[in-house]
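Recap from last week: sequence in, structure out.
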Amino acid sequence: MHVQPAMAAPPALFRAPPRGTGWRATGLVVLASLVAPLLALLAFGPMMTPDSPTYLAYAEALRAGPLPEGEALLRQGSAPATLFRTPGYPAVIAMLQTVSPSGWVGLLVTLQMAAQAALAGLAHRVALALGLRPWMAAAAALMPALGVTIAMQVAVMTDAFYGALAGAAALLLLRAGLGKGSLRAVALAGLMLGIGLLVREATAYLVLAFLPAAAIAAGRGPGEKVLGRRIIGVGLLLAPVLLAAGWLMTENHRRSGHAVLSTTKQIVMVQAVLPLLARGVPVFDGDDLFDRTVREHVLPRGYQGLDAMNAALFAAGMTAPEIAAVAGDRYWRAWQRHPLEMLRAMMVRAPVKMFQIGFMPVDAVAELHLRFDRPRPWFGRIDAIMDRLKGGSAAALAALLALSGSRAIALALAGAAMLAPLLLRRDPRFPALLGAWLVCGGFLGVYLPVHVEQRYLMPVAPLLVLVGMVVLDAGWRALRGAQAVGEARHLRP
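Predicted structure tokens:
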């Protein structure tokens, strides 16, 4: 009897449910996804972070009237908020402040929760379309909701909105790729990414990771050639992003004389080479103003010296766009002069916890305490748990099982997702899943060379879990099939 390869289960095993089924379950997933952030809001309240003041300053400038221009803008400070940030998130804040001057924070958090709940609902629909069993579909949709997204939903930060926009764009492309394709879905994904660029300027680079998924999601129409349809799909995805980027650069050029998306390079491009500075690599060894200032302020203090560096450069006559331009130049110079050290720095930025974004309920709660300047609780620290275990604490045993178990599940999902191109090559869902896999890899590819945090990967957490779930489910089905074949052979006379 012929036995198929381990991961090549028959397509019939993965037939998606009929359209329109499971909506009650989707509604329950949406409601369940709101539980954790609501509890966080009740326990801690809304969160302001070191980044929040710049968004609030931009929002205040929007409400005050025309944004500053020319010298009034460039001499405003070392990092004027209306150049350092993109306008999307501040515009939402300004609108809510106009609607409710005293209750805008509550409205903002509510909108952020609603956006993430909608993303969970969409993830559930895609999980069903992938053919996952009902309990697996619900788990796949809810797991990312028990992670860093809890804190970001109650924070005055862009991550909840951006995670919903970019995450939904990726899920729409995956869903369209599973069927016959849909240019409408690709266009909607492009619109979301276009709006996303106004929330986070890194979308200008991240959009490249979505292009293969867009080409796959475009499908093939009746009588149309595949290549032409896919080119149209790529164009529909890119157009809104390019239009948004063009408008923003034109507007910033009108106001400042510099065609930039933002001036965040004045921070992140120096931050990107901090691992090299810590190892004594001569990145800023020149005699010009910029290198001397970095050596004076950043070399002895690291990240804590970046603000002082920018202030000193500004006091010496440089503007924010000029500082950003030189910082970008020094970053690329570091790659030319020290490529191996830059590669090492990339590896340093990829700790194991980056691969736990799909499911981290215990760590998320523990880190929520840290974000509110409270000590990390004992149940989020292995050393503290082990100390309590020595005293025979049953609670410590439960905490150890929960913490280690959740980390193991997250790493298993991430590991399975990473192996998807090898293990699912003969699966009928492979093209669409490959597009999703490339989106996940693209986010790491964009952020690792510069700076990466778990919150930056929020948009791809649902994709990571879905792809990992499909791989594990396919492996389980193949194993069961092989066992059934073995039993049949054993019973054969």
